[in-house]
Amino acid sequence: MSNRTVTTESQLTQYSNLIVLALRAAIEAGEEILEVYESRGEIEVSRKADRTPLTEADMRAHRRILALLAEPAGGDQALGEALPVLSEEASDIPFDRRESWDRYWLVDPLDGTKEFIKRNGEFTVNIAYVERGEPRAGVVYAPVLKRAYLGVVGIGAYRLDEVSPGSVPEQWDEVVESATRLPRAAEPAAPRPYTVVASRSHMSSETEQFVEELREEHPDLELVSAGSALKLCLVAEGSADVYPRFAPTMEWDTAAGHAVCAAVGVEVNSWPAERPLEYNKPDLVNPWFLVRRA
């Protein structure tokens, strides 16, 4: 059983302000990414120390997000100085410095770099607000799809479609008015099969075995492949029932999608221990996890 943080009305207002700032940062970072994505020729790729790919788009998005998140939290001067930021592209901050962070931004400027390089559109910008080890608010933005998922724990989760820089809501009320609340209502005339969403680029043998075991219980099971944090959002919106990830990920890969899921009561638990994922650990690698509708 998890000891979840009790949220006050003033905190909910703060979180909603934070998410609007994060949405603007994600969309502007998405524009930086699209300039590279839509350019002619092959995308140049270098390798980081851990052998994961890095492109110009990763760094341009990273720099843009840092500039925007340098504003005071939620744009409210009363909330004090800007929050610290832990980004995939600047993750070498030692734990003895990070461990004092009660509140911070956790950012993946371009989640799904392999999908970006393949130009299949299934990559996202992920920005999460984390408080005492829990993602409390998050934005997952897919620039090619022009779709953003937003979640605030204690308020709810939403999906924005046809997003563009000129249509960014400036207030939380505007987000609610223009977005679809999650989970989306199912169409009674077209019930879907039990749906498992899995990684397009990182399918493991353990995941395949798990899916086959589920198939015995759900003969109509449908397996859907997708990239980046979109997989968490598909479960949150009700398009999928479960997302098993039995392969390595990092905290910045999951935090924003975790917040979207938590906002609608979808569990994101380690596997097989089934404890909520924790953030700002000494080691930023996630355990295996399972995202599942209750």
Overview of this structure, please?
With 294 residues, the protein is an alpha+beta fold. It folds into 2 domains: 9-181, Fructose-1,6-Bisphosphatase, Chain A, domain 1, CATH 3.30.540; 195-292, D-Maltodextrin-Binding Protein, domain 2. Helix content is 32%, strand content 23%. It has 8 helices and 14 strands. It has helices at 9-37, 56-69, 95-98, 113-118, 172-178, 205-217, 230-237, 251-263; strands at 46-47, 53-54, 85-87, 103-111, 124-131, 134-142, 147-152, 156-160, 180-181, 195-199, 222-226, 242-245, 267-270, 289-292. The strands form 4 sheets. The protein has a 7-stranded mixed sheet, sandwiched between helices. Strands 12-14-13 form a 3-stranded antiparallel sheet, sandwiched between helices. It has a two-stranded antiparallel ribbon with strand order 1-2. Helix 7 (230-237) runs parallel beside helix 8 (251-263). The chain is globular and about 55 Å long. The two termini are 15 Å apart. The model is unreliable at 74-80 (pLDDT under 50).
Write the SSE topology.
Layout: H1 9-37, E1 46-47, E2 53-54, H2 56-69, E3 85-87, H3 95-98, E4 103-111, H4 113-118, E5 124-131, E6 134-142, E7 147-152, E8 156-160, H5 172-178, E9 180-181, E10 195-199, H6 205-217, E11 222-226, H7 230-237, E12 242-245, H8 251-263, E13 267-270, E14 289-292
Parallel strand pairs: 3-4, 10-11
Antiparallel strand pairs: 1-2, 4-5, 5-6, 6-7, 7-8, 8-9, 12-14, 13-14
Helix pairs in contact: 1-2, 7-8
